Amino acid sequence: MRLLEFQAxxxxxxxxxxxxxxxxxxxxxxxxxxxxxxVLKAQVPVGGRGKAGAIQIVRxxxxxxxxxxxxxxxxxxxxxxxxxxAEEWVEIRKELYLAYLIDKENNLPLVMASAEGGVEIExxxxxxxxxxxxxxxxxxxxxxxxxLRPLTKALKAEFQSLRALVEAMVRLFHEQDATLVxxxxxxxxxxxxxxxxxxxxxxxxxxxxxxxxxxxxxxxxRGFDKRVRSPSEELAEGTGITYVPLDxxxxxxxxGAGTGMLTLDLIHQYGGKAANFCEMGGLSNAETMExxxxxxxxxxxxKVLLIGLIGGMTxxxxxxxxIYQYLKKADRRPPIVVRICGTKADVGKARLKEVGIEAYEDxxxxxxxxxxxxxxx
Length: 377
Ligand code: GDP
Ligand code: MN
Known about the structure:
Blueprint: H1 5-14, E1 22-25, E2 38-42, E3 55-58, H2 61-73, E4 75-76, E5 79-80, E6 84-88, E7 94-103, E8 108-114, H3 121-127, E9 132-136, H4 145-155, H5 159-175, E10 178-189, E11 192-195, E12 198-202, H6 211-221, H7 231-236, E13 242-245, E14 250-254, H8 257-269, E15 276-279, H9 286-297, E16 304-308, H10 316-329, E17 336-339, H11 345-353, H12 363-376
The structure holds guanosine-5'-diphosphate and manganese (II) ion.
């Protein structure tokens, strides 16, 4: 579970890490809570808010109202802003980066730090990876002074205060079963180190150990992070069809999650880009197939539709009928490539022939055909 910034900061504060004073607003009507100069921060569960205009510094009270309203009217990376954190403005001398996380490749805790924190950290990591230092921590020994010395040097920080801060992060990490605690920027200010932004991810698999906490964090977030959904996502809601939008142009439907994953891999392998993941959740009837096609073609980016089916429990006569029914009524009809095999495949195939579809037996061949057709368009 990813916490919103205000939740993450509250957790940092509870563990003794300094954060700026702030108030949370859930509507522009609460703007009398704001003091100036202020930093207004849209509470959306995505990074890069600064660059997206979702972090605004307001110096004068007379500019506050317009800016608060502007933020509440905004949508940031698909998330309409439903809460704004107003914090007292802090003068920054330097922006550092500090994170504690599990390095999954090495199965070890990892401290990451950089003297070049702030909104360009991804850029720094890409262009000058040596400027982001990474130190593994022995899980049996825990954090040791020798882990901290290179950090102190890289960040030009004061040893004792950096140690206190990293120790608090590590304590939080373990107590709350986090998988990531990231502070960026960690600001060097006249009053010492202050966490100006924080990202905390809690391990969902450990939710049972923190039942109350998860419940209250989720309740708090409800309504704050409603992403604007696409027409396809709206159509899929409540149908039992699993639909995940992706950013390519090959629409795909599978009759099971495993086939679906395999099909995605194959699309990629043959040089295509999937527009979505979709599986029918074991609902093997003609109506679900027809509905699935409507869902996928609700996405205007789809150029070719690839339907990959394995008839076990799923009956191919039903699937063929669903595709047939869609095409009989369809107003949108991009090229459709179908792979059918197994239970009652003959009946399904015959039905598809009536609407001009020559179905494949072989999944690889079908995927290659779909990718080729996209390229021909
Ligand atoms: P992100 O872009 O989503 O990571 O949002 P951040 O909360 O990190 O804010 C982006 C940038 O806004 C920071 O790197 C700071 O440069 C700036 N910023 C945020 N809070 C303050 C503040 O209290 N004072 C000042 N001077 N700048 C701030
Ligand atoms: Mn940040």
